[in-house]
Design goal:
Layout: E1 2-4, H1 10-21, H2 40-48, E2 52-58, E3 61-71, E4 74-82, H3 91-102, E5 107-112, H4 116-124, E6 128-129, H5 132-142, H6 147-151, E7 153-157
Parallel strand pairs: 4-5
Antiparallel strand pairs: 1-2, 2-3, 3-4, 5-7, 6-7
Length: 167
């Protein structure tokens, strides 16, 4: 079942993000990896900045989370993670499809360039990689991330993304 998260879900969301993010260890640049991948304070900050988490629950246990953030003229998909033990069961696709139904503006997704499985997942679900220069512009416009993360990330866009060049 997919539902909007509640305050009581915070600890499980935190646990799932860090469990799921373990896949990045040894893949993303070493200088961008830290443990925990996302601190409790960072998660609180993300929520305070408008990231709304949606959860996928089975047998009263949250097994997947995905955030959505409405920013200016776009919708961002943020922090998509599935428990390691529950991957490859279509949970991410179900969460993504649900979030697509509540997005009223084009969707952008940023992820690590070397997380090939994540890039392929979004492409399989109809998103397209944007060119390097457009990616750099968008990451600076809609995300608050360091330059090093911009260098090592990609942005994917939904089919209704109007961008064809640099903003």
């Amino acid at each position: 079942m997919i539902s909007k998260s509640e305050q009581k879900d915070f600890n499980e969301i935190y646990e799932i993000i860090n469990d799921g993010a373990s896949a990045y260890k040894g893949i993303i640049p070493e200088d961008r990896w830290h443990e925990p991948y996302m601190t409790e304070d960072e998660l609180k900050k993300q929520i305070a900045e408008g990231v709304q988490f949606w959860t996928y629950t089975e047998d009263d246990k949250i097994i997947g989370v995905m955030g959505i953030q409405f920013k200016k003229d776009v919708t961002l998909i943020r922090h998509a993670y599935i428990r390691t033990s529950e991957r490859k069961k279509g949970i991410g696709s179900k969460l993504l499809e649900h979030l697509r139904t509540i997005a009223a503006t084009p969707i952008l997704i940023g992820t690590w360039a070397d997380a090939k499985w994540a890039v392929e997942f979004y492409q399989k679900n109809g998103f397209r990689l944007l060119p390097e220069q457009e990616k750099n512009t968008l990451l600076r416009k809609y995300w608050a991330i360091p330059d090093r993360q911009i260098e090592t990330s990609v942005v994917l866009a939904s089919t209704n993304w109007p961008g064809t060049g640099v903003l």
